[in-house]
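Deviation from plan, reported transparently: adenosine-5'-diphosphate complex.
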Amino acid sequence: MSETPALTPARIAAVLERTPRSSFVGGRFLGGTAALDIIDPATGAPLTQVVDADAEAVGLSALDAAADAQDAWAATLPRERSEILRRAYELCHERADDLAALMTLEMGKPLAEAYGEVTYGAEFLRWFSEETVRQPGRFRHAPSAHEGVLTVARPVGPTLLITPWNFPLSMGTRKIGPALAAGCTVVLKPAQATPLTSLAFMAILAEAGVPDGVVNCVVTSEAKEFSAALMADPRLRKVSFTGSTPVGRTLLAQASEHVLRTSMELGGNAPFLVLPSADIETAVDAAMLAKFRNNGEACTAANRFYLHYSIAEEFTARFVERTSQLVLGPGADPATTLGPLLDEAGVAKVQELQADAVERGARVFTGGGRGTGDGFFYEATVLADVPLSARVHREEIFGPLAPLTVLDDIEEMIRAANDSEFGLMAYVMAEDLGEITQVTGRLESGMIAVNRGVASDPSAPFGGVKESGLGREGSHEGIAEYLETTYVRLPL
Ligand code: ADP
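Because the crystal trials were delayed, the predicted structure below was used instead.
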C-alpha cells in the first residue's frame, strides 16, 4: 500500500459524497429519501443518512432480481465468474482508501485496522476466484454393475446473506465470494449500523462485471420482517448468517419451513490458555491481538484468559503493561490503537460484565472506565482474580475487557475452556509440543490458534462447533456450502 491519506473533514465529506446511500437491486441503486441515521461511534453524532428500504416490498423485489438472474449466472463459464471475482479483488485494492475510511467512520475501528480488513476482505474474492475453476465432481465405476456413478456439483440457488456490523467488508466478501464462485445469486442484508461499506462494495461488484440481479443489497431497519418475507418465499434456497446465537436460532427455525440450506457463524467465547511452557513475550503479543484487535468486537476475540499458576505473575505484569500503553481515541486519528465501541449498548454491556466480576472479587489492574468525549469509548481493561462463576466466563464481552483467572493445572484449564455452550475459537500459548497436543486435541472448538493472536485466513475453514454455528467459510469448505451434489447413474 502506498501512502495512507489522513481522514480530514474534507476527505470524509468527499468519501461520503461518492458513496451510494440506497439499496442496490437488479443492478441499480434505488434512490429515495435518506432518513436513516448512520452514527459515528467516535462522536455519537450522525455521520450521514441512508434510505431505509421497505423490508417486504424491496426485499421481495431483490429476491425477484436474484431469482431471475439465477439460471443465467449458473450457466456462465467458471472461468468467466473467476475473472469477475478477480477484478473485484483488484478494485477493492484500488478503492482501499474509500473502503477503509468508510469502515472506520461507520464502525469505529482504527484506520490501520480498516486497511487490514480491506486486504483480508479482498482476499476472499481472490481465493474464491481461484476456487471457481476447481469445482468438485467425480466419476466412479459402480462396484456391482457395469454402470457409472457420476457426481456433479450444482449451485444451491438464490441465497440470503445476513451480515453483522463488526467487519463491514469482509463479512460480505466471505459470503459473496463463494456464493458467486459456486454460481449462486444473492441478496445481502448488511447490519443497519454499517451499510455504507457494503453499498460502496456493490458499486465495485457492478464495475467488476457482475451482471444485474446477481448481487443485490437491501438496507433496512426491519431486519426481522425482511428475513421473514424472504424465507417464506420458496424461491429462496439458502440462508447464510453471521451474528448472535439468539438470532441464529430464530433463523434456523424459520429455515425449516422450506428446508433451506443454512450456514451459521454465531457467537463465541474464546478461551486463551497460557500453559507452563509458554514464551511470555509471544503469549503477550498474541493476547494483545486476540483481545484488543477490532476494539475487542470480534466473535473470535479472547473472552477469558486461563493462566497456569507457574507463569501467571510474569504474564500478568507484561500484559497489564502493554494494555496500559494502548491509545484510546477516534479510529480516524493515526495515533489511535483502540477505537470506540459501536454504540452505548456495547459500552453498557462491558460495564455490566466488569461490575459483576468485581462484585465477585475481581480486581481492576488497568483501565476500567469510560473514555472521555461523546463517543462510545471504553478503556482497555485488565481484571485479575476473576472467579469462574463470573458472567464474563459465559457471555460474549465484545469489548476491550480482559478477565484473567489463574488455575492450578492443565486439566483444570481444559475443563474451564470447554465449560461453555460456544466453541468457535481457542488460543493456546505453549512451546512444548507435548503440552500443545495434549490441549489442542481436547478443546471443543472449531478453530485453535497456537502462539498466534489471529487465525482468520481465507484459505482456512472458519467456523464453530456447539452453539457457535454450522458450516465453514473460506477454504474448500467455503464453496461447498453453496453447492448441491447431484448423482447421475449412467449405463456403461
Ligand atoms: P450483532 O450483535 O452483531 O448485532 P445480531 O445477530 O443482532 O448481532 O445482528 C446480525 C445481523 O442480523 C444484522 O444484520 C441484523 O440486522 C440481523 N438481524 C437481527 N435480528 C434479526 C432477525 N430477527 N431476523 C433476521 N436478521 C436479524
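The CA atoms of residues 167 and 280 lie 30 Å apart. We consider this an acceptable substitute for the interim report.
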